[in-house]
Structure prediction request, 187 residues.
Amino acid sequence: MPLTQEARVNLTLLVDLVNTGRSGHEELPDPASLSSFVRDHGFSTPASGTDIELQQVHDVRQEFSTVFEAESVESVVALVNATLLRCSALPQLVRHDDWGWHLHAVAQTAPLADRIAVDIALALVDTVREDELSRLQRCAAEDCDAVFADFSRNRSKRFCDLGNCGNRTHVAAYRRRQEEEATPGKR
Prediction:
């Protein structure tokens, strides 16, 4: 069974959240940016707009960024289970906005960081169960530390969508080959 649309949306949330804190690229510097992030990702209740909430979301980001370096499935499972326990997850089917029936595992009144963490944890549940953790990767460009979820059919994606990394890498390789061909005696 392929990953559900809900799992894909929440894996994209994970990727986008981790990418907001890449080295030298803090994209959630204040509560207003967090509110925009939450709105862009379709959360049904808004952020409260406090510095404490922002710090809690930063903590979730740091915690889940470890998924992209996970040494084993068991380490991801431990993170997921700890998150679900910490957030007192109790899954329920709900329907709102343009979404059909889907799972919410914490109340809409739960802290934003818990709602984000549990949504990501549930997506990781599906990802682990479908043996698809290899879809969560770091960009192959040497100068990029972004992450991505590879939803391609043949799992061939190697570069993120943030910095034109694939194109830059391919152009650099082409230029190196051209330079090697133009230099006599070099091969």
